[in-house]
Amino acid sequence: MRKDLKMIAIDLDGTLLRDDCTISKRTREAVEEAGRRGYRIVPTTGRSYRNTRFVLKEFQEISYFINGNGSVITSGRTEDVLYFHEMDMDNVREIYELAAKYDAYVEIYAGQDAYMDAKGQEVIRRCGLPKEYCDQLLATNRITADYRKLLAGDHIRVGKVHILVSKMEEKDKLIREIDLLPGVHPISVIPNNIEVVQGRWSKWNAIAKLADMVGVRQEEIMAVGDSNNDYEMLLYAGYSVAMGNACDRVKEISSAVTDTNENDGVAKAIEHILN
């Protein structure tokens, strides 16, 4: 057992989840066993807290959740929000107006929830994503009848904006338009998506903040991931594991490479540190 590690940050899509958005029994048991042995288990994902809690409803050993690409940290025991990285609302409104010109799915991450509108419910099905992924998002997303009205007030705090475009040729144009706004740096994780948070905030920034809260040192953190929004956490974690299905950029900076998400890569990585 690796006693030098105290926290395990695990990405969801392409990592903990198989391609059909399910989790194998072996992987779930490995994660739960690590939690029982005292490791702090931290799902670290671009998804909302509400959706992650829904997807991981069978898990009992989750210490904390990091969601919205690091924009919100939630206690797994009490569900209290421990930290929120807030976007400038003028930017959020402008990003929505830019995206509204296209055939796009717009998802607004506010607190622990994600919002979508009726147009988004229809567009997401045309974006080439797995049906299982779409079904999971739709199961927990809150529906707004009017995004402009929702974003007009001062009652809402937004941590992330997620956009899916149905036409690939429009994505690069929209990214360039968003990139002109002050203080935002859009990224893309899958071919037709755009994700925006405040500044260059990443999953790693939230992991580091949580680690400081609970007294865990950088070298005591293990991170597992596969994609561009996992890059910083794999680069800076004390022990980083790239999935076998990860992009080369991620594999190159990781401490180790495990099997794919289809072949219990997370389970094998965790079993390695437990045994």
TrEMBL record:
Give one Pfam family, short name only: Hydrolase_3
UniProt-listed CDD domains: HAD_Pase
**In the UniProt record, which is one GO cellular component term?**
cytosol
TM spans, by residue? Answer: none
Please give the Gene3D superfamilies that the UniProt record associates with this protein. Answer: 3.30.1240.10, HAD superfamily/HAD-like (3.40.50.1000)
Q: Superkingdom of the source?
A: Bacteria
Q: Where is the signal peptide?
A: none
> Per its UniProt record, what InterPro entries does this chain match?
Cof, HAD-like_sf, HAD-SF_hydro_IIB, HAD_sf
A GO term, aspect molecular function:
phosphatase activity
Protein name listed in UniProt: Cof subfamily protein (Haloacid dehalogenase superfamily)/HAD superfamily hydrolase (TIGR01484 family)
* Lineage per the UniProt record: Bacteria, Bacillati, Bacillota, Clostridia, Lachnospirales
